[in-house]
Amino acid sequence: MLIDGHGRTVNYLRVSVTERCNFRCQYCMPEKPFSWVPKENLLSFEELFLFIKVAMDEGVDKIRITGGEPLLREDLDSFVKMIHDYKPDIDLALTTNGYLLPQVAQKLKDAGLKRLNISLDSLKPEVAHKIAQKDVLSQVLKGIDKALEVGLGIKINMVPLKGINDEEILDIMEYCMERNIKVRFIEYMENRHANIELRGMHGKEILSRVKEKYTIRALGREGASPSFNYIIEENGYEFGLIDPHKHDFCESCNRIRLTAEGFLIPCLYFDEAMSIAEHIKKGDVESASHVLAQVLKDKPKENRWSEENPNEEDISSRAFYETGG
Ligand SMILES: Nc1nc2c(ncn2[C@@H]2O[C@H](COP(=O)(O)OP(=O)(O)OP(=O)(O)O)[C@@H](O)[C@H]2O)c(=O)[nH]1
Ligand SMILES: C[S@@+](CC[C@H](N)C(=O)[O-])C[C@H]1O[C@@H](n2cnc3c(N)ncnc32)[C@H](O)[C@@H]1O
Ligand code: SF4
Ligand code: SF4
């Protein structure tokens, strides 16, 4: 079992398979980074899997593939299959912007993927375009339909932004309600890579928008998930709120992150990371395990996103597209 320096059990590994993306979401990667990680520095699926096996043997039973945009990595289904075949019962999920799903959803399902979390910030083509800086909506909606058709479990993630998509909270919720999909509203997490003009909505403001039309009741957190769940009294629909500006979900943090370059990242907020790339490239899993032990020992207690108006020092310098969120 993997236990961190604060006594928390770590059973969730988020694996970012690429930092590249076909969108330029203003809250994540508004411009192409000055330089991409050169392709030769990326770990192959076989190399990533060497480490993943160690983690699974130590008790990791939930793996999420993410990015950048994970569907940009060629033959992703072969990677899904490696993980699935090693432990078919594992909670194996992927987070995507959905754009390439029409082409790959069936292959991913056949390879053993169970669940997808898809980002959907607007149902208006021009607003979706403004956020992603590309005309994406119709393709993303086709992707959601395809994923439903092939029988993958789906959740939708929306980041409400003041003056941009904040009027669409109920529309997105009702789109999900009609399809029996859970939506999670995510507080915008301030970071230095985002467009500095963005202002996120506080969890309370998001809930007020829902309360304009529905009566809601708090259900609580689902295990170690960052999502706090609510139920709509009128029809029993459940949705979630991811509110990192409160730090209570850090108390039960159960996750670490592995990047495509082989960095182990102990916390989404902080820059600290340790590389296992050299060890993994030599097939030295024992040394990689030592690095993992060190990362767990040093895992921070909580993030520093502030509940008040963010000061300079409350803004994370870690890029979401590198860590995979
Ligand atoms: N602050 C913080 N945010 C997180 C963490 N993990 C995920 N998130 C954010 O929560 C949002 C949703 O993450 P997902 O990739 O859908 O994964 P998840 O919430 O773990 O998914 P489930 O397994 O379906 O609960 C993203 O915006 C993430 O950045 C975390 O450890 N800390
Ligand atoms: C970094 S993306 C990677 C996977 C995929 N490209 C996608 O967009 O779903 C993972 C999640 O992080 C969220 N995210 C990115 N930047 C964020 C920010 N600054 N604040 C809150 N959530 C953010 C996205 O909305 C997405 O749900
Ligand atoms: S949130 Fe996802 S889709 Fe948007 S730029 Fe970041 S990695 Fe790409
Ligand atoms: S912000 Fe850091 S400590 Fe908190 S839940 Fe996320 S990874 Fe864990």
From TrEMBL:
<keyword id="KW-0456">Lyase</keyword>
<dbReference type="GO" id="GO:0051539">
    <property type="term" value="F:4 iron, 4 sulfur cluster binding"/>
</dbReference>
<comment type="function">
    <text>Catalyzes the cyclization of GTP to (8S)-3',8-cyclo-7,8-dihydroguanosine 5'-triphosphate.</text>
</comment>
<comment type="similarity">
    <text>Belongs to the radical SAM superfamily. MoaA family.</text>
</comment>
<dbReference type="InterPro" id="IPR013483">
    <property type="entry name" value="MoaA"/>
</dbReference>
<dbReference type="GO" id="GO:0005525">
    <property type="term" value="F:GTP binding"/>
</dbReference>
<keyword id="KW-0342">GTP-binding</keyword>
<protein>
    <recommendedName>
        <fullName>GTP 3',8-cyclase</fullName>
        <ecNumber>4.1.99.22</ecNumber>
    </recommendedName>
</protein>
<keyword id="KW-0949">S-adenosyl-L-methionine</keyword>
<comment type="subunit">
    <text>Monomer and homodimer.</text>
</comment>
<feature type="binding site">
    <location>
        <position position="14"/>
    </location>
    <ligand>
        <name>GTP</name>
    </ligand>
</feature>
<feature type="binding site">
    <location>
        <position position="119"/>
    </location>
    <ligand>
        <name>S-adenosyl-L-methionine</name>
    </ligand>
</feature>
<feature type="region of interest" description="Disordered">
    <location>
        <begin position="299"/>
        <end position="325"/>
    </location>
</feature>
<dbReference type="InterPro" id="IPR006638">
    <property type="entry name" value="Elp3/MiaA/NifB-like_rSAM"/>
</dbReference>
<keyword id="KW-0479">Metal-binding</keyword>
<dbReference type="GO" id="GO:0061799">
    <property type="term" value="F:cyclic pyranopterin monophosphate synthase activity"/>
</dbReference>
<dbReference type="Pfam" id="PF06463">
    <property type="entry name" value="Mob_synth_C"/>
</dbReference>
<feature type="binding site">
    <location>
        <position position="68"/>
    </location>
    <ligand>
        <name>S-adenosyl-L-methionine</name>
    </ligand>
</feature>
<dbReference type="InterPro" id="IPR058240">
    <property type="entry name" value="rSAM_sf"/>
</dbReference>
<feature type="binding site">
    <location>
        <position position="25"/>
    </location>
    <ligand>
        <name>[4Fe-4S] cluster 1</name>
    </ligand>
</feature>
<dbReference type="InterPro" id="IPR010505">
    <property type="entry name" value="MoaA_twitch"/>
</dbReference>
<feature type="binding site">
    <location>
        <position position="21"/>
    </location>
    <ligand>
        <name>[4Fe-4S] cluster 1</name>
    </ligand>
</feature>
<keyword id="KW-0004">4Fe-4S</keyword>
<feature type="binding site">
    <location>
        <begin position="255"/>
        <end position="257"/>
    </location>
    <ligand>
        <name>GTP</name>
    </ligand>
</feature>
<dbReference type="GO" id="GO:1904047">
    <property type="term" value="F:S-adenosyl-L-methionine binding"/>
</dbReference>
<dbReference type="GO" id="GO:0061798">
    <property type="term" value="F:GTP 3',8'-cyclase activity"/>
</dbReference>
<dbReference type="GO" id="GO:0046872">
    <property type="term" value="F:metal ion binding"/>
</dbReference>
<feature type="domain" description="Radical SAM core">
    <location>
        <begin position="5"/>
        <end position="227"/>
    </location>
</feature>
<dbReference type="InterPro" id="IPR007197">
    <property type="entry name" value="rSAM"/>
</dbReference>
<feature type="binding site">
    <location>
        <position position="189"/>
    </location>
    <ligand>
        <name>S-adenosyl-L-methionine</name>
    </ligand>
</feature>
<feature type="binding site">
    <location>
        <position position="95"/>
    </location>
    <ligand>
        <name>GTP</name>
    </ligand>
</feature>
<feature type="binding site">
    <location>
        <position position="267"/>
    </location>
    <ligand>
        <name>[4Fe-4S] cluster 2</name>
    </ligand>
</feature>
<feature type="binding site">
    <location>
        <position position="253"/>
    </location>
    <ligand>
        <name>[4Fe-4S] cluster 2</name>
    </ligand>
</feature>
<feature type="binding site">
    <location>
        <position position="250"/>
    </location>
    <ligand>
        <name>[4Fe-4S] cluster 2</name>
    </ligand>
</feature>
<comment type="pathway">
    <text>Cofactor biosynthesis; molybdopterin biosynthesis.</text>
</comment>
<feature type="binding site">
    <location>
        <position position="28"/>
    </location>
    <ligand>
        <name>[4Fe-4S] cluster 1</name>
    </ligand>
</feature>
<dbReference type="Pfam" id="PF04055">
    <property type="entry name" value="Radical_SAM"/>
</dbReference>
<feature type="binding site">
    <location>
        <position position="155"/>
    </location>
    <ligand>
        <name>GTP</name>
    </ligand>
</feature>
<dbReference type="InterPro" id="IPR040064">
    <property type="entry name" value="MoaA-like"/>
</dbReference>
<dbReference type="GO" id="GO:0006777">
    <property type="term" value="P:Mo-molybdopterin cofactor biosynthetic process"/>
</dbReference>
<dbReference type="InterPro" id="IPR050105">
    <property type="entry name" value="MoCo_biosynth_MoaA/MoaC"/>
</dbReference>
<dbReference type="InterPro" id="IPR013785">
    <property type="entry name" value="Aldolase_TIM"/>
</dbReference>
